[in-house]
């Protein structure tokens, strides 16, 4: 549920944890920075961040106004690129968690 603490455009999100195989850390980083262009093309994705959480651990956080936007993102080109490369680059399947945003400070 949106409140005055959360803009309508960022009420729900996804948090993904991605564990790279040690020998493919650079390739995972390049994949994540490379798909930024795809995130910019998604009208329903209002926020998108690629993160480094540790030496071989990465993450993605993104936000959406509606469940339909979140599902479209999960069916989109970024998810496809990640899953296509997962067997070679990742030590395990990505952990993808749906989240509800409770409060936000945005520009």
The share of residues in helices is: 25-40%
Biggest sheet, in brief? 4 strands, antiparallel
Cα(first) to Cα(last) distance is 21 Å
Number of β-strand runs? 4
- How big is the Rg? 14 Å
| Structural class label | alpha+beta
Average pLDDT level:
95
Q: Please report the number of helical segments.
A: 4
**pLDDT < 50 runs, ≥5 residues:** none
The secondary-structure element order is EHHEEHHE
In spatial order, strands of the major sheet run: 2-3-1-4
From the spread of the alpha carbons, the general shape counts as globular
- Strand fraction equals 25-35%
What would you say this structure looks like, in words?
With 107 residues, this protein is an alpha+beta fold. 35% of the residues lie in helices and 28% in strands. It is built from four helices and four strands, in the order E-H-H-E-E-H-H-E. It has helices at 25-34, 36-41, 67-74, 77-89; strands at 12-19, 45-52, 57-64, 95-100. Strands 2-3-1-4 form a four-stranded antiparallel beta sheet. The mean pLDDT is 95.
């Amino acid at each position: 549920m949106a409140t005055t603490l959360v803009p309508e455009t960022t009420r729900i999100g996804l948090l993904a944890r991605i564990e790279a195989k040690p020998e493919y850390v650079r390739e995972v980083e390049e994949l994540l920075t490379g798909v930024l262009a795809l995130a910019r093309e998604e009208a329903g994705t209002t926020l998108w961040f690629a993160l480094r959480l540790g030496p071989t651990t990465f993450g993605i956080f993104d936000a959406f106004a509606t469940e339909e936007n979140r599902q479209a993102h999960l069916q989109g080109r970024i998810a496809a690129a990640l899953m296509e490369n997962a067997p070679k680059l990742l030590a395990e399947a990505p952990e993808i968690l749906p989240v509800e945003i409770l409060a936000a400070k945005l520009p």
